[in-house]
Design a protein that fits this description.
alpha/beta
C-alpha cells in the first residue's frame, strides 16, 4: 500500500528541503522501500536540488514535445503509449528512488481524453511505490489537476513569519477538500526560539493543526532536519512500522 506525502505552501519556506529530509528519514526507517518523488512545482527546484536539469516532463508527453530516450514502440494503444512515456521520463536517483517532473498541468475539468489517460497512468505509477513524496505548488489544487490519488499526509510548510502563518491558514482552507481521508496540518520550519511563543499562539488562534516544528539551522543540514521530522513522524498518517 502506497503512503503519499504532499508538501505545499508559499515558495521559499522550505518545501523542497523538507522533501529531501523526508526522503532521508524514510530511507533510514524503511531501508528496502521504494520511493517516488514527484516534482509538481513549476520551478522544478526539487529536480535542481539533485543536479537534474530535466527537459522531459509529464507536460511534454501531453504536448508532444517530449524527447524520447528510445524509439517509440509500434502497435501501442494510447494508454499503453502514455504509460511507456512516463517510464521513459522517470529518472533514477538510486536503486530504490525515482523522480519525475510534471511542470504544467491541465485543469481537471478539461474534457481532453489525454488528460484522463495521463491521470490514470500516473495513478498506476504511484501504486507501484511504497512511498510517494510530492513537492507541490502553493496549494493542492494544482496537484489535483495532475492526479487525484489519495493524499495521506498534506503538510503546509511555513517559516515563523506572522504573515506566512496567516497565509498558511488560507492554504489549509483551499486544500482541505483534496485530503478528505488524510491529515492536513502545518510544520513550522526555520523556527527561531525568540519567535516560538508568538508563532505557536498564532497557529492556535487560527485553529491550524500543528504537526511539528523544525529548528532554524545556520546551514542546510538534511541530517538535523530529518531528526526533527523523526520527532513528529509518529503523529503522521503514514506507515509507522520500521
Amino acid at each position: 500500500m502506497t503512503s503519499t506525502i504532499a508538501l505545499l505552501g508559499k515558495s521559499g519556506n522550505g518545501k523542497t528541503t523538507l522533501v529531501r529530509a523526508f526522503l532521508k528519514l524514510i530511507r533510514n526507517y524503511f531501508k528496502d522501500s521504494t520511493i517516488l518523488l514527484i516534482d509538481n512545482d513549476l520551478t522544478m527546484e526539487l529536480s535542481d536540488s539533485f543536479g537534474i536539469k530535466t527537459k522531459n516532463t509529464i507536460y511534454g508527453i501531453k504536448s508532444g514535445k517530449h524527447e524520447y530516450k528510445t524509439g517509440i514502440p509500434d502497435g501501442m494503444s494510447k494508454q499503453e503509449y502514455i504509460e511507456w512515456a512516463l517510464e521513459d521520463i522517470l529518472i533514477s536517483i538510486d536503486e530504490n528512488t525515482d523522480i519525475i517532473a510534471s511542470w504544467l498541468t491541465t485543469p481537471k475539468a478539461c474534457k481532453c481524453p489525454d488528460t484522463k489517460l495521463i491521470r490514470d497512468s500516473i495513478n498506476k505509477l504511484i501504486d507501484r511505490y511504497d512511498f510517494v513524496i510530492i513537492d507541490c505548488e502553493y496549494d493542492l489544487k494544482y496537484l489535483n489537476s495532475l492526479t487525484d490519488y489519495p493524499i495521506d499526509e498534506a503538510i503546509i510548510v511555513s517559516d515563523d513569519n506572522k504573515n506566512n502563518i496567516v497565509l498558511s491558514a488560507k492554504i489549509a482552507d483551499s486544500s482541505s477538500k483534496y485530503v478528505p481521508n488524510g491529515q492536513l496540518g502545518i510544520v513550522l520550519n526555520k523556527l527561531k526560539k525568540e519567535n516560538q511563543n508568538e508563532a505557536l499562539n498564532l497557529i492556535n488562534n487560527l485553529e491550524l493543526n500543528l504537526i511539528g516544528t523544525i529548528e532554524n539551522y545556520d546551514e542546510l543540514d538534511y541530517d538535523k532536519i530529518s531528526q526533527d521530522i523523526e520527532i513528529f513522524y509518529p503523529r503522521l498518517n503514514l506507515t509507522q512500522n520500521k
